[in-house]
UniProtKB/TrEMBL annotation:
Source taxon at top rank: Eukaryota
Protein name (record): Kazal-like domain-containing protein
Name of encoding gene: ORF24597
Higher taxonomy: Eukaryota, Metazoa, Spiralia, Lophotrochozoa, Mollusca
CDD domains documented for this protein: KAZAL_FS (cd00104)
Residue ranges of domain Kazal-like in the record: 1-38
A family per Pfam: Kazal_2
InterPro entries referenced in this protein's UniProt entry, alphabetically: Kazal_dom (IPR002350), Kazal_dom_sf (IPR036058)
Signal peptide: none
Species for this entry: Arion vulgaris
């Protein structure tokens, strides 16, 4: 479950936050459960990309898969 750090970075889970704290010799605490308010800090993704956090860093990436859709769409 994602957590939002006091530094407004969303971590994949509490373990990842602790891991980053150890590597960076910091003591960032959990601000709240779930992702930070706007998902990825100031990061905005275009072209239907989604924001993900890896090792405390935000990046935009294309979705890995599509949800099964029963209704065709005209593009």
């Amino acid at each position: 479950n994602p957590v939002c750090g006091e530094n407004d970075i969303t971590y994949e889970n509490e373990c990842k936050l602790r891991q980053e704290n150890c590597h960076r010799e910091e003591n960032v605490k959990i601000k709240k459960e779930g992702s930070c308010a706007d998902g990825c800090g100031q990061q905005r993704c275009e072209f239907y990309a989604v924001c993900e956090t890896v090792n405390g860093r935000h990046r935009c990436k294309c979705p890995d898969s599509c949800v099964q859709v029963d209704s065709p769409v005209c593009g």
